[in-house]
């Protein structure tokens, strides 16, 4: 997980992602990159999309226990 965040941070630094921009994360998984992006885009708009049947089928969504994911 940490290497994914390091990779994203480097790309965001290079692209100068900031403030009110928009971000679409396809295959966002648990949303670690989205959480990191939120700190850089305080007035921006962030959308994460992930097709993960176990999460979709869990009635608690992201608060679903790991044992059910």
| Radius of gyration (Å) | 13 Å
Q: How many strands?
A: 2
Count of runs of 4 or more consecutive helical residues: 3
Spell out the helices and strands N to C: HEHEH
Helix fraction, binned, reads: 25-40%
> Which structural class fits the helix and strand makeup?
alpha+beta
Mean pLDDT across all residues, rounded?
77
| Gap from first CA to last CA | 17 Å
List unreliable stretches of 5+ residues: none
The profile of the biggest β sheet is: 2 strands, parallel
Taken from the alpha-carbon principal axes, the silhouette is: globular
Give a written overview of the molecule.
This protein is α+β, with helices and mostly antiparallel strands and 69 residues long. It is built from three helices and two strands; from the N terminus they run αβαβα. It has a two-stranded parallel ribbon. The radius of gyration is 13 Å and the shape is globular. The mean pLDDT is 77.
